[in-house]
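Replying to the earlier thread about multi-chain prediction with a worked example.

Input:
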Amino acid sequence: MALDTKPTGDTPDRWEAQLRKGAVEMAALASLWGGKLYGLEIIRFLESQSSLALAEGTIYPILNRLKAEGLLTSEWVEAEAGHPRKYYSLTPSGSQRLRLMAEAWNNFSRGLDRLLEPVLEKQGILP
Amino acid sequence: MTDEQQVEQYLSSLRAHLGAMPPTEREEILREIQAHIRDSAEEPGSSLAVVLARLGPADELAVEYQDGLLIRQASRSFSPLSLMRATFRIATRGVLGTLAFVCGFLGYLIGFGVVLTAILKPILPERTGLWTNGSAEHLRYLAGTVYPTPQPPMHEILGWRYIPIALTIGALLLVLTTLAIRFFLRISRRERGGPHLSSPRNQQPQTGKATA
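Result:
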């Protein structure tokens, strides 16, 4: 690790942004695992469960695309708030895709965790 | 400007930028965004300004919707028009896209041109065909619908067989161009889709089916 240098510029930030963006599709599918939700609920759910705070505008086009790909369905439900809301739920192929994604993600992240363990230990971030 | 006017302005800007989309899909998007604005503005401690800022500018939101739609439709379509439109959208973003656009354009142009000469053969039989001078040293060929009619030693060698041959070659060019563009769009969609990072299995046929 002789070449190890300080993080430079905004690279880690940009990398993190890419990482988040990449995970949003899977996260959106995962938020619907427990049942149907509407857009704002998905956004709030992602914020509370993971640190996936995102520009709210980005989630709607993603939901739209997932629906077009047949992974989600939607229905308008009249709410007591006075206006209908568009609820999304997983289709069978959406559930299947999510299961595969979760499995792959799990393998991937476990591998990386092992790899990163010494790095974090050295900095005293891990106990 | 009142809150209501602000919302109205945001939505009509979004509507305008979503222009190319099928009206039913566009109106559904607008209804959903409108519901989002209402719901999140009613949350405690929220304000309309914050809600709209978090949604991002209407034109950028529209672009995210449209990219998805256009490329999705096109990579399923066989229409040269929609294929070229989607490629053009990508072409504005990079060298590879521009290259694909130019290749697609040329492929269609030449393909259609060759088919056109097959159609012209019955109308201009003397001026449509494949000519050669038959020379051993300076072999020359001339094909298509030409003006003026080539003079000897150039002579036509295909006759009416020109029509099926030109149709086949033209059709082959059009099909190859279409397949190449569709392939390109699929690849670029996969790259732009981002989340494929999460699943190496995406390369398997199973997920291909879901996006096909």
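Chain A has one domain: 17-122.

Feel free to reuse this layout for your own posts.
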